[in-house]
Amino acid sequence: MLDFETFQIHFTRLMKWFNKKETSVNVDMWYSRLRDRVPNESFEPVINALIDSAKYFPTPQDILNLAQDWLLSHPEKQAYHHETHCPECRSTGVIKVRAPERRASQLFHRNTFYRCKHCKNWEGRLGTWIPAKFRWELEKMRGLEILTERQEQKEIETVAGDPKDLLPEF
Ligand SMILES: [Zn+2]
After folding, report:
1. Dist. CA 104 → ligand 1 center (Å)
2. Are 95 and 123 in contact (CB under 8 A)?
3. More confident residue, 79 or 96
């Protein structure tokens, strides 16, 4: 399964490369087309291949075909990805938060995420350039709120929205 984080990072790169703007509704539709059919580890190499050689912005089917090619050349990846039990991140390897951000002297909140420092369940799914934190470290960060599972579900619906969706703090 393709993580939303991985999808968002690399799909954004692809859109930038092709100077393409998709509405948040379209981006959500793309994700729902790919989510269950693209292995997480294949997505970055697939997007790299498209950036290297595609003449036009791809269709979902183009991505599915490339992901299938990738799987054929990495048969060992078809095995179930082993995860250890981790209470810090509900074994997802990712801790999602709502973080304050100052922009043009106004305070906004934005959804973002950290790698879980307690486990390695993020391996093969998130790059090490994404900062890793323990849950208690995040709990001590001022103004930052760790999202509950329910809030995370909601985040998937709203994360690709435009900046006016970001609420100033009162
Ligand atoms: Zn963890």
Report:
1. 35
2. no
3. 96
